[in-house]
Specification:
Elements lengths: L2 H13 L1 H10 L4 H22 L8 H25 L5 H8 L2 H12 L7 H18 L11 H23 L7 H16 L13 H29 L1 H23 L5 H17 L24
Length: 306
Amino acid sequence: MTSAIRMGVLALLWGSGFLWIKISLNEGLTPGWITFVRCLLGAAVLLALAYGAGQRLPRDRATWGRLVVAAFFCNALPFLLFSIGEQTVDSGVAGVLNATTPLWSLVIGLALRTEGPLRAARSAGLVLGFAGVLLIFAPWSHGSGLMSWGALALLGASASYAVAFAYMARHLTGRRTAPLALSAAQLLTATGLSTPALAVGGSATVTWAGILAVVVLGIFATGLTFHLNYRMIADEGPTAAATVGYLLPVVSVTLGALVLGEPLTARVVAGMAVVLVGVALTRAGTGPARKPRAADASGPPLPARS
């Protein structure tokens, strides 16, 4: 399989996650149940892969304590916020807003002083990226329907990923636990953290289509995509894997329009382009993407970080 095909398959699987969330919601599942099942099935896939590779879960309490924080900000919270957000916002727009994670990472890095002084290109990228978000929201247009609590929840999910990456960079770097096992442990922890959300929600009837959608979300768009991403990094390097992240908004917008009939307005497309250009500029001069740590596995792929 060529590199282009592998990247296309990975981008399709990962970018389709927003579609499966939307279908699950439309077919009766609550955000809490979507989050719980997604974490549970993703953990099951990674546990099976880790067991097959002879990897074992961490045993020390310190690592599990750090995993609680990582699982909350990298999985339980953003997964829930994405499901809440897509109750009122299109799946394609959700995928575009997910691409703002590197912008939040840069803001957090500046606040923590882990980022040096910004060069002109990165400063322009930061401003341009958030300008793209404003273009998508169009708060000046009362009929846009995007400026809502759901949209803010989606931005909160992307910011949560950024918080998680900053924490994991400090506290989960250099752990001796094998990658698949550490990622499985993180999703297991996220499953436990998401359990309280099961009690919140309505009493809508869940259809088989909703069940199938959340199963695909958990197995393919959460668990399997990590493994494929990790293999791509190992076989072709981090740059090839990083490219996938820039394809995710395109995939989510395209699938939303084709499968769900979501409106593909010129403003949203333009906003997506502006956000991606801004993200690209914020990464200027940062050097090649690093190989991800195991704890990063269940979050967005490499480009969703600064």
